[in-house]
Amino acid sequence: MKKWQKFLLITVFVFAFLSSIVLNIPAWMVGSLVYKYSQHKLDTINEHGTFWNGQALLIAIDKQGKTAVPLLQIGWKIKLGLTKFIDINFNSSNQTIANASLTKSGLLVDNVNLSLSLDQLTPLMDNLNSLSLSGNVHLTANKLLISNKMQGNINVKLDNVASGMAPVNPIGSYQVAVDLSNIGINVTSDSDSTINVTGVGTINGLVLSSRVRDDKKEQLLQFMTMLGIPQADGSYQLKVF
After folding, report:
1. Is residue 52 part of a domain?
2. Domain range holding 126?
3. Average pLDDT over residues 36-57
4. Is 66 helix (H, G, I), strand (E, B) or coil?
5. Is residue 79 exposed (0-12), middle (13-18) or buried (19+ Cβ within 10 Å)?
6. At residue 126, does pLDDT exceed 80?
7. Based on the structure, what is the number of domains in the chain?
């Protein structure tokens, strides 16, 4: 065999070997990216498939890193590109729930459309966990930039929130707006909520002010005393985190 033929054979073998490694990068690598760019708030377990096309259970992690809460089973498909170094489509039950692209500017997240139950999220907030909250959570977001300089807004709708500790249910529906540019949080209530809740803060500290509808004050007096600290104006103050 001639030298050029040996060289070509070795080159083909090396290329095939490296291609096999790249194509079979394990699925847990996606979890590593999710964990990093969510600032250690999200991760994956029970991964199947590969880095390029796989499935896993998405979990949320509390700020101490001690509690992991299952959120949903997700799938993903990853493509490589030039301006978008990595482009990821996340899906659940055959529907897109988010698109994420890794660029030189950071991680771009778009088309977020995710529904969960409230009881999946309350274990991450110690002050609310004891209230046995339930309800529907709908999260939407577009054009988020996650980098050293964060940009974009996340909108969360909490519908028909109820508490296993309250004698009157549901207690209301609420909106939570998160501004990534300053990590600000703004909480408002639907006008027909039994318990009206408002609050402005950040992920480092959020205090809510709540008021009960006049015709339900007596029924919810004990619950509200447990919920927060009574104020001189008749409202109750609750520190979420």
Report:
1. no
2. 111-241
3. 86
4. coil
5. exposed
6. no
7. 1
